[in-house]
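fyi for ur records
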Amino acid sequence: MASKPKLSTSQIVHPDKDPVLNEENPFDSMMSRFDRAAELLNLEPGIYKILRNPEKQITVSCPILMDNGEVEVFTGHRVLYNTSRGPGKGGIRFDIHVTLEEVTALAAWMTWKSAVVNIPFGGAKGGVVCDPLKMSMGELERLTRRYTVGIIQTLGPDSDVPAPDVNTNERVMAWVMDTYSMHVGHTVTAVVTGKPVEMGGSLGRREATGRGCTIVTTDALEHLGMHVSKSTIAVQGFGNVGSTAAKLLDEAGAKIVGIGDRDAAFHNAKGINVKQAIEYVKQHKSLKGFKGGDEISGADLLTLDVDVLLPAALENVITTKNAHGIRAKVVCEGANGPTSAAADSILDEKGIFVIPDILANAGGVTVSYFEWVQDRGGYFWDEKTVNERLIEIMRRSFADVLALSKSHKVNMRTAAYMLSMSRVASVHRLRGIYS
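which gave:
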């Protein structure tokens, strides 16, 4: 890269030197890492300013008629962070804790995630402030459709392509696709991914994020001179991502000694029967009451003495409060933002090999890309082909990040940000600025 003017020191935050203003703020954490990578890349100030600001932030009111006949108004957000490399790509979550700041941080993460695996998407994210567990199926459908109409000007296969996220699923994506299709007057399968297979969804999509975690975990262990078949693993979060990764790692010969969700956590030094745990959750909706190990606290699950810790729940589960107690040799971030920026340097000092979220859980967006390609081409692949192509992209991306980590003598997270940001910045330089 040609030499460019460096950012002033006032523009840079060093997550390994300076305290993050608010450790619990996901946008602060993401941006402190962004600033570190920007300095190492010697990004010119103009490109820095472009990449540090979201392209579009939309907030909509969603009034719907509840089952009891009363009207409730919900707030929804959609953020397109950067679409220079292609359509915005990112999930829609339904959660009582959704904020515009969180959605913006997640949209930025999606920008870097798409770039780190080098697929032609930008980054987007959406969310509605609601408690879906207290809503009927009819109320959720009406909310989904009203939210879709609220953001419909941004949606489209060439502009913004949503997917499932926290508390949303294939059914919700079917409602989004149907609402959009009714408004444009014809069926548009490529407007969302994560749909039912019968509606143009891709085989292998549901398992893709957990499978991607398994692929990069295996590569990381091999890089460290270890083997997955002789490793011990703890999985925090036992939803789709965590349970899939646990199942696949178990099938690869690893010993899953700890699992947990928001209701309960368990440890079994001899190994947990993962298939039984998955069946238990299917029947009981959580791990609470599971008899396959000794019940422990969620905090103790994170600090088990294991080879691999796989946090696959929500943000900020590893912070300065507990990072010193992490004993795993490898942390594979199945969730978005499970480690705060302030905790990064602590894990570095302990010599823990972290596979950052924008790489570790990129299997989901990769197979979403496959689904989008299949929808647009009208030709669908078998699951073997999907998985083979996922393995190829995840292994190549891990190798690219590892090579950059070695050449610049930085950790994997910084290397992943450097790689993804350099790809986005390069496109901005080539496209120029329209004015």
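Residues 8 and 333 are 32 Å apart (CA to CA). thats all i got for now
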